[in-house]
Amino acid sequence: MEGSIHINIVAILIAVVANFILGFLWYTPLFGKVWGREMGMDMTQKPKASEMIKGMSFMIIGNFLTAWVLAHNMAAWAFVPEMKTMSTLANGMMAGIFTWLGFYVPMDINTVTWERKSWTLFFINTVYHLLSMIVASLIISHMPA
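and the corresponding structure tokens:
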């Protein structure tokens, strides 16, 4: 049916896995110690296995919902005639950057202003959110339905 939105569930699942790996790398070897310190965590205590499983499960659910909604938004924008003249790379980058800029940056700034978190934590989280959106949008844009 013309005008229908078609979503590639395989692209969404690949984006979920890619962002799970990105999140692991970002918040463990790359910035894990700094992030934990900025969050006020006791870095000498190892979390319980049940806490880790619960956290990872919710992360996967969150990654799925983000990729699914992002795929819908990208598919909806595909109906704009000018979008067809742009490269797949440009479409993916724009989707990722503008989603990050409009939805993640304001919430990340709120953690500094209202929750009194540090700017260091802001930059760790918001750059992760930017990369996460770019990764998901590039995968989704390069694997159309």
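(Above: one complete record from the training split.) Residues 9-142 form one domain.
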